[in-house]
Amino acid sequence: MIFQPDLITGVISFIFTLLIFSYLIGDNPLFRIAVYIFVGVSAGYVAAIALWQVIVPRLAYPLVFGSMNEKIFAAIPLLGSLFILLKVSSRMAGVARMTMAFLVGTGAAVIVAGAVMGTLIPQVGATINFFDLNAAVAVGISKGEAFGNGLVVLFGAIFSLVYFHFGASPKADGSMRRFGLIEIAAWVGRIFIGITLGAIFAGVYAAALTALIERIASIINFFSNLFGNF
Amino acid sequence: MRVITAFIAIASGVLVLGGYFFPALAGVQTLLLNWAIILAGVAAIVGILNLTSVHMDKIRRGEKGSAYSALLIIGLAVTFFFGMILRPQHDVMQMVALNGIIIPVEAALMGLLTVSLLYAAIRLLRRRTDMMGIIFLLTAALLFLGSATLPFGDIPVIGTLIRPWVSQILALGGARGILIGVALGALTTGLRVLFAVDRPYGGT
Amino acid sequence: MADSIKCPVCGENNPAGQEFCQYCQSRLQPITGSLKSPDAPIRPGQAPTKKNTAELEPVLPQWLRDARDSSRNNEDEDVPQSSQKTGKTRPAAPAEDLLAGLQSQSSDGDEDEMPDWLASITGTAPTPKKNQAESSEARRVELGDKNDFAQEETSDEDTPSWLAGLTENKAQANEKDELTDWFRNADDFKPAEQPAKTPPADDTPDWLRRMATADEDTGKAQPPSFEASANDFPPPAPETPDWLRGIEDKAQSVDSAVFAESTAGESEAFDPLSSGELPAWLNDQAENAAKRAQDTTPKWLKNEEAGMPATGELPAWLSSSEDTVPLPPVSQKNADALGDLPDWLKASAPQTSIFEQPEETPAAEVEPAEASFDSPDWLNAFKDAETFASDEPAPALEKDIPFDAPPAFAGDSQASATDNLFTEMPDWLSSAMELPASSSPTPITNADAIAPGELPSWVQAMRPVDAPLPSPFSSFSSDQTLESRGALAGLQGVLPAAPGFTPTSKPKAYSIRLQATDEQQAHAALLEQILAAETAPVPIASYSSLILRASRGLRWFLFFVIFAAVTFGLSVGAPIFSMPLGVPREIGGALNVARSIPENAPVLVAMDYEASRVGEMEVAAAPFFDQMILLKHPRLTFISTNETGSVLTERFISGPLAGHNYENRITYLNLGYLPGGQLGIRAFSLNPRAASPLDMSLQPAWASAPLEGVATLSQFAALVLVTDSADAARVWIEQTESTRGEIPVVVISSAQAAPMIQPYFDSQQINGVVAGLYGGAVFEQNNAGRPGVARNYWDAYSLGMLLAMSLALGGGLWNLALGLRDRASAREAK
Prior knowledge:
The complex is a heterotrimer. By secondary structure, chain A is mainly alpha-helical. Chain A has 7 helices and 2 strands; from the N terminus they run ααααααββα. Chain A has a domain at 130-230. Chain A has helices at residues 5-21, 29-65, 68-85, 93-129, 133-138, 143-163, 180-229, and strands spanning 169-170, 176-177. Chain A is extended. The mean pLDDT of chain A is 88. Chain B is mostly helical. Chain B folds into 3 domains: 1-86, no CATH class; 88-126; 128-196, no CATH class. Chain C folds into 2 domains: 31-462, no CATH class; 585-799, 3-Layer(aba) Sandwich (Rossmann fold), CATH 3.40.50. A 6-stranded parallel sheet of chain C has the order 7-6-5-8-9-10, with helices on both faces. In chain C, strands 1-2 form a two-stranded antiparallel ribbon. A two-stranded antiparallel sheet of chain C has the order 3-4. In chain C, strand 5, helix 25 and strand 6 (635-640) form a beta-alpha-beta unit. Chains A and C meet through helix 2, helix 4, strand 1 and helix 7 of A and helix 22, helix 23, helix 25, helix 27 and helix 29 of C.
């Protein structure tokens, strides 16, 4: 029997795949063993990646080999990193808040700008441009089809947004109801939302099915390789 | 401390936000973001340290399931040790850790999701019989069918006409509405943070 | 009891309707027969008339305020009182006493300067035994600051006006202020001045007997009040009343008196018979003073002596030696008295009968005997004060005397105050009787009353009321505080609050009630409802073991069906299902990008997917990269915002792209992990060199061949996002919107993310989408017939999708029917 690295990988992979599939008979120690080992290995791997691909190149390297400016600029995140590490200590966790505040503040700014410039404006503009019939004709879509599609997308977007409007006023019987037109629009929006979620559900199932196919294919390959080597 | 943290959050946010609109602040924005990159990487390490400490405590106290925690710690230590020595992209690390454990486990869990999703789809109308549930299931079934092919080609009408129209037009309207809603939510959330109304960093 | 009347003097019962006591000839019926009006004097037991005295507050004399301040300052201190000679301790002033400072002032090392009558008021005689038993009823008067009697150092001109009333050299005989009037009445009670009506021994008024009894009980301790020597008294003048002469006559023979402090610390029993015509207490006082022969008379009394040549100029109460003391024609002096009255008394004068009563009542009706009944309560309080005295601890006088307050009777500085002192004196004198032993005001009971008699109307106005009604009339001050202790107990609005601490306005009232509108309440109720629904346990009664077993069986069935179908699809050697033939627009866009990028152009590839979707992502991405590499040989630069993305990139290159022999740093470059999510993406889009200076092997990235000539994001030929997450795709699209320029963007995504990425393709923010195995199959189908993994998976995939459609649709309809049946049966059951 010739030692092949792929065979070892195949064996390990096969074992862990079976351990996970054992979940079909319920939660069992084998499944837990696989999961705990997976979590530990993943954490260790991520830690190694973070050290080698973040700390070393972006922090340690400038501090050691960088110019004076680079060292100065690297000293500040070094200080912030020390603050974050203090988060482990409950007593010193307050110091870490400063670093976390910095991260949250910058993150909030990036989110705001990205949402406005990357989604809100372009998506609203695209909904409007759906009625650009000349552009549709240019890409081989008839005007009627373009107009109809544009209406569907427009109403779908609007009604879907209305669906997420939960402002309501109490009725005489104590129930909470939305305004009449809002209620109708939200009902239509529910249809669009249902269709979208159905599409997402189908996509998730397709992705899961593909993953299952890949796992079964790997098992088949493992056995074919295993028995092919004998 | 609360004032300081709020000031830091607001100041950094305003500077970064200004970098989107004022070229003069682009340099400051880049500098702050590069610092944030490093700090985010350190934060990931802190998370792993926290995970380690939690399971170490469980082992130390001999709680139920501490054997699993021991497995976790062993796997973490070994992987980290060899990852530091060999580096993560090394072939051995990829073969054993990535291809041998991480990918099979995750993919198998994802494969199990197939059964769960199908089971949920079957049982959906048993517990929820309304317009949204029916449309949801019909759409999913239509896309299931439209994604498959026949031995001689795409399924007529469904695969060639209905499926693209549903996924590209009908679903597009709802998806756009959801995206705009998400963007609005992100906008308001970010502004609340920038105005220090929300202080998820622990300033409240 | 209605048939007889008890004589208030001798205590004997008399038939009802008897005007005079048949034993002691004392008047039984008050001389108020004509005073049946509301102005009638108050009788014992009668509820006092509620008087609104709040308007008097602004004209409250300064000394009273000062004394009050002084007492407040020494609230927690016991004012020491000690006898100068005996060393016995005096009762400490109650801290809350309004006039606390007066006594301490008077005993400032020169106690004998205290007037006798004041000393008796203070009740400083320590009578331990008696006081312990009667402390609850004891009363006393605390006098003001030590400087209050500073006029003893002053000349006659500095004599306060209230003392001027006692001196004739002031020529104020016609200044019949209210004090003289009622003092005159008080003087009338002396039975010695009525030889025809000289009472027997048992004719002694009750209160005097009680005083004597108290002295006997207490034994030796006597209040060190009257230390004035008889020598200090002026020689008896023809007009000198008998009782004053009696004082001098017996001053040399009496060793001790009830109201005099004995040097031996002992006191003799009070003998009313020995007093002759004088009341015993006055007799003893004189005797005691004469025996000691000490010049302890206060200076103000000396002045009094010097200025007392004639009784005609004496105050009425001192000159009332007649059997009957006809009241002066008050009506004539009414105007003068009113003119002298302070405003606050004027305010009360019209309500009282003090100035009007004489007009209505003949002078003859003012019988001396009635004077005893008419004794004001301050006299009544003497007997109580004496018993009260020993109740209190008596620390050293010099120790705790409050000297801070301005003197109540200061000379020059307080001239204006002292000028009016006498006219305002009744304020504290009248309330001396009300000095409580306890902190709460003692209600006036019958036991305190000697007999029904006339009470000066202004005193009546000052009398405390148990429950003062809120006055509907406006007062001069907004301070309507009911004085609960001290001389002004029971009065409302007399004393202002401490200056500077008086709230200028009524504090704003803040309601603790939640201010919420009905709408807000409704919203809150709705929120509570939602929260309750979230946390409410959902009954799982329907999940019986049978159902759970069936559920598990269904899961196993599904797994084995799918597993069998997939295995069959993968195991079948020949393709069963055709690859998808149609090319959707989004995949067509990706094809265009793969075919349109420049040759050997730098292409940035973001590998952001999890290991769980490696199979799907590699199948979807491989045809695209295969075609692009084949056609354009791009220089690939990989970066990942996912921790494992960098190693998955290596796996992708060494796996599906292995046939292209791409080498690190030559044809491809792996920049590794870019942390920070959106932050990292934004930083990289702004300045890729700064965000990722080194590659995964820690070599300078931007000097390598794959990144040659690239400094910014827009200098890449294309941006390819390989992601399984719609959020990751959205973030990349959003954050590079302003920096990527016009470079094409292709998203190779998982099937689950495709619906949410589609809007970005529709908005032309991205140029193509390859989603899942279906997209990979389509792309592979259009990849010049090159074999790929998609083809291997496609049969299993098609089988799995058809199976899912069948099971979901069939099972869904079946469960729909079951659900309808269950609901129908549930409705029937109801």
